[in-house]
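JOB MANIFEST
job_type = single_chain_structure
chain_count = 1
residues = 161
[input]
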Amino acid sequence: MSAEYNTYIIEHVDNVKKAYLWLKDHKIITEDILDQLSLHDASKYTDKEYKAYDDYFYGTKTKAVKEAFNYAWLSHIHNNAHHWQHWVLVNDDDGTIGLEMPKEFVYEMICDWWSFSHKTGKLDEIFDWYKDHKKKMILHPNTKKLVEEILDKIKKELDKQ
């Protein structure tokens, strides 16, 4: 076990909660998802994920470490509905589609993304991050609309400050 990785997980979850509380304080979302957030990324402590994540981010990225991480990441997205990849359906015949995410997972996903801005204190970083990554995301149109509505509300609130 790596103390550095343990510290990262604890700080990350704290920053996810900070992002959520900011959204609540600014009335961007009204739903209470604190119980849900108390389990945020809990799967990172499992045998399927912990060592692979620790080795990948705090060790040497050998071919074996990268391969183990890929399996850990696959486990992570399959066990954490706040990742958009969790909601991607690969059909045998009809291609790949994004299923609509329940809004509580959209909220958690945005808090997850925004947690890194809360760590640096640069709360506007999320907008460039989303701009750089949205083309790769397979989102249901309603999910994409909700994500962009929330990001627009965040931007308006930040612009007031």
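[summary]
The radius of gyration is 16 Å.
The mean pLDDT is 96.
exit_status = 0
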